[in-house]
């Protein structure tokens, strides 16, 4: 099952948090059937990594016209290229996927007032290196 996630880094982080919280605790045998296909809008570190290991992905979503279109604060009057066509071509041709490690970091948070107890929060993340 291909799950296409079109959005910025913040949206993908929210999606990852929901996945880990609600689906990650379930039995893992069915997780092998899910494939998340990330389509970046704007600057996205995971997309940069995917573009470095997959030239086709980089050509579709990291070229200057794509970055320029989604780096603007206002949408252009006309679409400079077929955005939907690019996404559909990527989804259709995505036969191989790249496994990305998902992990959680435990953060200890303190309240603003010293008399309140601290609390722990788990934050999921995708572990990629952009060396």
Automatic annotation (TrEMBL):
GO biological process per UniProt: protein localization to plasma membrane
Annotated InterPro entries: PACS1/2_C (IPR019381)
Domain Phosphofurin acidic cluster sorting protein 1/2 C-terminal: residue ranges: 2-128
GO molecular function: transmembrane transporter binding
Designated name of the protein: PACS1 protein
Source species of the chain: Pandion haliaetus
């Amino acid at each position: 099952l291909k799950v296409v996630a079109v959005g910025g880094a913040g949206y993908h982080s929210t999606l990852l948090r929901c996945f880990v919280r609600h689906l990650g605790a379930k039995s893992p045998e069915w997780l092998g059937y899910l494939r998340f296909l990330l389509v970046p809008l704007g600057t996205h570190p995971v997309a940069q990594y995917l573009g470095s290991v997959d030239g086709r992905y980089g050509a579709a979503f990291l070229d200057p016209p794509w970055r320029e279109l989604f780096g603007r604060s206002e949408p252009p009057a006309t679409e400079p290229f077929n955005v939907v066509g690019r996404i559909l071509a990527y989804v259709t041709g995505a036969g191989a996927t790249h496994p990305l490690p998902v992990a959680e970091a435990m953060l200890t948070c303190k309240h603003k007032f010293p008399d309140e107890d601290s609390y722990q929060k788990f934050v999921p993340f995708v572990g990629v290196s952009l060396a």
